[in-house]
Specification:
Structural class of chain A: alpha+beta
Number of domains of chain A: 2
Shape of chain A: elongated
Low-confidence stretches of chain A: none
CATH architecture of the largest domain in chain A: Sandwich
Strand content of chain A: 15-25%
Number of strands of chain A: 11
Largest sheet of chain A: 4 strands, antiparallel
CATH class of the largest domain in chain A: Mainly Beta
Order of helices and strands of chain A: HHEEEEEEHEEHHHEHHEE
CATH superfamily of the largest domain in chain A: Jelly Rolls
Helix content of chain A: 40-55%
Mean pLDDT of chain A: 93
Strand order of the largest sheet of chain A: 1-8-3-6
Oligomer: homodimer
Largest interface: A-B, 37 and 37 residues
Distance between the termini of chain A: 45 Å
Radius of gyration of chain A: 19 Å
Amino acid sequence: MKKYLEILKKCPLFDKIDDESLVRMLTCLGGRVVSFDKKYTVFAEGARAKYIGILLSGSVQIIQVDYYGNRNILSVIRAGEVFAEAFACAEVDSLPVTVIADEPSEVMLIDSSHILHTCSNNCGFHQQLIYNLMKDLASKTIMFHQRIEITSKRTTREKLLSYLNMQSKSAGAREFDIPFDRQELADYLEVDRSGLSVEIGKLRREGIIENRKNHFVIL
Amino acid sequence: MKKYLEILKKCPLFDKIDDESLVRMLTCLGGRVVSFDKKYTVFAEGARAKYIGILLSGSVQIIQVDYYGNRNILSVIRAGEVFAEAFACAEVDSLPVTVIADEPSEVMLIDSSHILHTCSNNCGFHQQLIYNLMKDLASKTIMFHQRIEITSKRTTREKLLSYLNMQSKSAGAREFDIPFDRQELADYLEVDRSGLSVEIGKLRREGIIENRKNHFVIL
DNA sequence: CTCCTTTTGTTGAAAATTCAACATATTTTA
DNA sequence: TAAAATATGTTGAATTTTCAACAAAAGGAG
């Protein structure tokens, strides 16, 4: 477990918990590490929402797939971030989303009951853990607000521009990479891929952006 | 404060806290009650995200208004529910949304620092409060998942049908009222109002639904 | 009850999206 | 390196949405 300590220390779930306590805690929480190759399913829709996931390496996507096979990308999880926590905390019985590995990924799975209900050892940091979980959920809610602000725009162009501006802002630079290829960006923005390609081309010709693959510059 | 006890007991924030403790707690939290007439602003976008709101009576809407004046209804809050908690908990400095009274409403405002940081009296229920807040935020996240599942559909018809099915499901009946007039429903589904009216008319003529104003029956 | 305001429904034209099909470019792998 | 697979760009037709303008219906105030 030692090898994961550095990344776990960056996980918001373990904020303000010192190294020694963290190690003891991990035993107590009974987390286990599982690896997934690219495109493999971490959690399938409909599965029991029993585990909270912490991404140790790689990246995973939270997606919904509708009746017709249309994919909707809800969010992208990066190393150190937590996922599926909302379903575990709200004690829903089955997952309404699928989690798939976007690249080879290592995931730590923790039985949510070990987090939500204080263990018999009563390690003093359980309260901090709950507090951290609350903070994490609050920031997830804000993340969804931002996503909705983008996708509620009515045209592909407006969605794209507000997505790129948001990314630029959070990168703190006019030049940045996005975590999506074209189809994925379309599935995140809730638009048609070919229409998205057209719009990117237009913005480039109008001198509003420069881009190459998933690298963008706002001019 | 006594007159609000019944509704506060139903608030998820005070789950598993007995009456006596609740009363003591309210003093400790320093909540104050404010009334708003219909259409009045409870919190304006850009305001400091200092307070957590508990709706005591009436109903409020969480909305975003873009540059062009287009309204987007993110959610509707009913009596007993909490709002603006995510922004306070995540300690963002200014609100990215507006909260307006949808009907005459009474709101209890609690300074979030009183909730997040244990008070000097150290009332024993602070931990339960944090735990409840975490649960509440988890269910808000799930609510947004559901909203996105609806609004990610590409046509007005599909959005409307999946919204109505969701409402029917949560009402546990094929017959139910929705909390929106036509314009509000359009702003929630992220579609054009007149196009929505057309679609409702079609579904009615096709014998798929019956409706009168905001009352719907799925056949 | 009547007038006034608000809400809902209707229409047609303009704009945008979706869809399918294919061309081109890039990446992977054998 | 060449072939195969995947990703991106392009096009035109069909569908759908948006927009503006107005008609009809419902609700509220005096």
